[in-house]
Structure formats: structure tokens, C-alpha cells
Amino acid sequence: MQTKEELTRQLRLLKEEAGSHSPSIFTIKEAIPELKVKVDACFLSNPYATDLFLDYFKRELLDTGGLRDLLEFYPSQNRVIAESLSSAIGIHPDNIFIGNGAIEIIQTVIQRYTKSKIVINIPTFSSYYEFINDDVEVVYNKLLKENNYELDVDAYIKLVKKERPDTVVLINPYNPNGGYMDSEKVHYLLRELRDVKNFILDESFIHFAYENEYY
């Protein structure tokens, strides 16, 4: 059995090799088979949605034999997927960007549109600063632990107006504390920072939040 120090070194190496995300639980188990993982703190799945997907998978694909077509034939192009998604969410397909996971989209948007300066709240999802081009200035807005990492909206607006970045990032619900900024505050921020060229509003986990019957 490895010592705590040896496990720490090995886990740190796995994290470095994993790039912009933590190593998967399967990678960890393969590298350290004697390690018993009780809780995967990096688990991003919604178990309720997973159950719904499995029910749909069995009913619409396995029971009908449709799975073979999905595996055998080339998938639809992003334009077609955007058009299908458009009718479901009420957004024009020209305003929908289809990506293979959030990290691919974050990297594309950050590297394509951020040209001079970006303001990022920290702590946060590391991809937002790991993918920034070398010639872009990064301004970190440190969220305080004693305030439960809550964002001071007015202080944030003041900082952004002072720094004049071309990109800002707001994650809602917050990362890492899961706090939720209601729609009124979000719209307030959008109005106050309307001169910022790129306002990235990351709502990857918005389905876990509840504001009222409409949001």
C-alpha cells in the first residue's frame, strides 16, 4: 500500500496529465487500483436526467433497433443540430454555437474573441484562464472565502469599468460555491456592462437553480 505522500504525488501527476480538467475516476482507478474512491467530487452528472436518458435510450433506440443507424451513419452537421435546437429553446439558429462539450466551446470563444484583456472571478473553473492567449492580459477579481465567495455586484461593475476589458466571465450558479444570482441582478449587470464587447455568461448548471416558476 502506498503512503499518503506517494498517493499525493501520483494524484498530482494525474492532474497535470489531465490538462484542463481533473482526471476521470476511471483513470484514477486504473493508475491506482488499490485506491477506493467513495465520493467523486468532480461528478457533474444529473442523476435524474441520466435516468430519463436511459429510459429514452431503451425505448427509442434499443427497442426500435434505431441504435445501429446512429452508430453506423455519420451524424448531422452542426447547422442541422442548431436548427433542431432552435425550435426547442426559441433562439435563432444563427445565434447557436454547437460544441463537443463545454471545454471546447470555452476554448474557442476565449481564443477567438478575447484580444486584449479579460476579467475573471477566482476561484473558478480553471479553463477560463488556462486557454487564454499569451498576449491577453488577465485581471483576477478575487472572491473572498469569508464572504462565501459571493460576488459583490457593484464592486465588480466598478472594477470592470476601471479595467475596460474586452471580455468578462460570469458563471451562474457560481463556481465553486453554487450560489445563484437572480435574473434581475444578471440583467442589471448586462445593462451596466453593455460596453464590454464579450460578456460570457456560463449557465452550465442553471438547471439546478430555482428562482420562481418561470426561472
What would your notes on this structure say?
- The chain has 215 residues and is an alpha/beta fold.
- It has three domains: 43 residues; 49 residues, no CATH class; 95 residues, 3-Layer(aba) Sandwich (Aspartate Aminotransferase, domain 2).
- The model has no long low-confidence stretch (mean pLDDT 89).
- Strands 2-1-3-4 form a four-stranded parallel sheet, with helices on one face.
- It starts with a helix and ends in a 13-residue tail after the last strand.
- The protein is built from nine helices and four strands.
Using brief descriptors, characterize the structure shown.
215 residues, four-stranded parallel sheet, 10% strand, 3 domains, globular, alpha/beta, 43% helix, 9 helices, Aspartate Aminotransferase, domain 2
Q: Give the CATH superfamily of the largest domain.
A: Type I PLP-dependent aspartate aminotransferase-like (Major domain)
Based on DSSP secondary structure assignment, what is the total number of beta strands? 4
Total tally of structural domains: 3
Biggest sheet details: 4 strands, parallel
Distance between the termini: 50 Å
Low confidence ranges: none
CATH topology of the largest domain, what is it called?
A: Aspartate Aminotransferase, domain 2
Radius of gyration: 21 Å
Helices and strands, in order, run as: HHHHHHEHEHEHE
Global geometry? globular
Kindly report the spatial arrangement of strands forming the biggest sheet.
Answer: 2-1-3-4
Short summary of the structure?
With 215 residues, this protein is an alpha/beta fold. The chain has three domains: 1-43; 47-95, no CATH class; 114-208, Aspartate Aminotransferase, domain 2 (3-Layer(aba) Sandwich).
